[in-house]
Design brief:
By secondary structure, the protein is α+β, with helices and mostly antiparallel strands. It folds into three domains: 3-85, Glutaredoxin (3-Layer(aba) Sandwich); 90-199, Glutathione S-transferase Yfyf (Class Pi), Chain A, domain 2, CATH 1.20.1050; 215-242, no CATH class. Helices cover 51% and strands 8% of the residues. The chain has nine helices and four strands; from the N terminus they run βαβαββααααααα. The protein has helices spanning 15-23, 43-51, 78-85, 95-119, 124-146, 159-174, 183-195, 198-210, 224-230, and strands at residues 3-8, 28-33, 67-70, 73-76. It has a four-stranded mixed β-sheet with strand order 2-1-3-4, covered by helices on one side. The chain is globular and about 45 Å long. The termini are far apart. Mean pLDDT is 77; it is low at 209-242. InterPro entries: Glutathione-S-Trfase_C-like, Glutathione-S-Trfase_C_sf, Glutathione_S-Trfase, Glutathione_S-Trfase_N, GST_C, GST_mu, GST_superfamily, Thioredoxin-like_sf. It is found in: Cytoplasm. It holds the Pfam family GST_N. Belongs to the GST superfamily. Mu family.
């Protein structure tokens, strides 16, 4: 029986989940929701959210996307979904590895949220310079945490490497040169794409672009190929002067 991944029709928080599903060769289908205009969630999402209510849910809460449904199991949020999909050996084996997993998964979420707050803000142009100013320090922290390890937790790939890959890749879109001073992070990106199957990662990331995609905030004047590329990313990445 296939799992169902529900999320907006953008890259966003579901990207690491998608990569993990592909990496583990899991059978799944996606249920994509069209993003609203900022005046509230689309009604179809509100109806689906009601179907996710269970005994462990917070009373009266609105279930956030992404969600993952596997038979009777219903999971919301990115990290719990990744943990559910990931093989047990990719969640850290020793106590030290499990600690590093916990640290990195929370750091990746914090950094993702910081970037999103800037990119989705109506004051984006004002906030961007300050964010760029602090970006080298942010990347340095990732570089120091990785150190000389092949993977962020140790010698074996773990599910948090998927989270780290996602957040680093997003920042490379935001500022293509942000990793130039950190060769170990660039090596990590290359290693991830090779070990996990560079061809399927890039094919997976590009296949949706071959389908009919509607640009939500596309700046006029881009070449068709770039427009197709931009359509894979959230509106926040469709307004950058690439």
């Amino acid at each position: 029986m296939s799992m169902t991944l529900g999320y907006w029709d953008i890259r966003g928080l579901a990207h690491a989940i998608r990569l993990l599903l592909e990496y583990t060769d899991s059978s799944y289908e996606e249920k994509k929701y069209t993003m609203g205009d900022g005046n509230g969630h689309p009604r179809v999402w509100a109806l689906d959210a009601g179907a996710l209510v269970g005994p462990t849910d917070f009373p009266g809460s609105i279930h956030p996307l992404p969600y993952l449904i596997d038979g009777t199991h219903k999971i919301t949020q990115r990290t719990p979904s990744c943990r559910y999909i990931a093989p047990k050996q990719t969640c850290g084996e020793t106590e030290e590895e499990k600690i590093r997993v916990d640290i990195l998964e929370n750091q990746a979420m914090d950094v993702s949220n910081q970037l999103a707050r800037v990119c989705y803000s109506p004051d984006f142009e004002k906030l961007k310079p300050e964010y760029l100013e602090g970006l080298p320090t942010m990347m340095q922290h990732f570089s120091q945490f990785l150190g000389k390890r092949p993977w962020f937790v140790g010698d074996k790939i773990t599910f948090v490497d998927f989270l780290a890959y996602d957040v680093l890749d997003l920042h490379c879109i935001f500022e293509p040169k942000c990793l130039d001073a950190f060769p170990n992070l660039k090596d990590f990106i290359s290693r991830f794409e090779v070990i996990c199957g560079w061809s399927w990662i890039r094919l997976y990331m590009w296949v949706p672009l071959l389908k009919e995609c509607v640009l939500k905030s596309c700046v006029l004047g881009h070449s068709p190929s770039l427009s197709f590329f931009l359509s894979f990313f959230p509106p926040m990445f469709q307004v950058f002067p690439l």
